[in-house]
Amino acid sequence: MVAGDHVRIYEVGPRDGLQNESRPVATAEKLHYINLLESAGLREIEATSFVSARAIPQLADADDVMAKLDHAPGVRYPVLVPNSRGMDRAEAAGADALAVFTAASDAFTQQNIGMSVAESLAVFGTVLARASSLGWWRRAYVSTAFGCPYTGRVEPSRAVEVGLQLLELGADEVCFGDTIGVAVPSQVRELTRQAVSAGIPLARTAYHFHDTRGTGLANVVAGLDAGVRCFDASSGGTGGCPYAPGAAGNLATEDLVYLLDGLGYEHGARLEGVLEAARFIAGVLGKPLATKVGQAGGWDPATGAAIGRA
Q: What are the catalytic residues?
C-alpha cells in the first residue's frame, strides 16, 4: 500500500441503497441526500435508475431527480439504464453517464431481468453504442461475480468472460459485484488476477462488495493489494440484495472511508460529511444507523477523540 495513492469511491446510496426500500422517499429528500454526499467530497454518485416504475416504484421519479440535480462541477452522476427505452428517458432527462447491468449467471439474469446473459449483452450493446456516440461515460456491472443464489459458486473465468464482452461493447469500466455477499479475499485476488491476465486493465476494473457476511472491508483490502482502485459503497450501508433476506446491505461508505484514511489512501471524501449524509437517509427511512463507523464514529489518533459520533 502506497501513501498518497488515489482510490475512487463510487457512491451508490441514492440508487442501489434506496431501490428496494418500501418506505417512499420524496424527490426533495433524494436531492438533499445527493447534495450532502456532494458536500462530503464524493465525486461519483449513482443518482437513480431509469427502470420501469412498476418494477421499482421507489425510483419512479428518476426524470424529476435528474432534472432538478444541481450538477455540481467535477461530480459525475451515473444513472442505471436497463434498455433502449431507459436510454431514451435518461437522454431526455439530461444524463451524461450511465451504468448497465448483467450477471455472470444465466439463472440470475433470467430471474432479475427476464433474459439470458447473452440476450442482455445484445440489449446493452445498443445502449452502450448510443451512449458512446453522445460522449457519455459508461460503466457495466457483472453481478453474481462470485456466487449465484440459484446455482451456487460462479467460476472467476465466467465473470471475466462477461466483463471482456462488456468492454468490447464499449464500456469504459467493468464493476464485478458480489451480489449476495459470499466472497472472501482469496477469491477477490483470483478474480483480479484472471481479469488482468485476460486483458481487463486494472484502471478499468471496479468492485461492488456487500457486507452480507462481514467480509466487505477484507475484500476491499484484497482488491487494493491486487491493484484495484475503485470501490462501490452506500452511505449508511443501505441497500443490498433481495435474494439474501435479512442480510446486511452494501458496504458502508463511512466504513470504507475510515479504512482508506487509516491506510493512507487519498479519496477526497470527508468522514464527518459522509456520516451526516448517512444519518440523514437513515432518518428518512426510519431506521437506526447500524454501520460500524456510524455507531462508533471515526477516531483522531492525535487526541484519541471520536470523530463524527452522533
A: 241
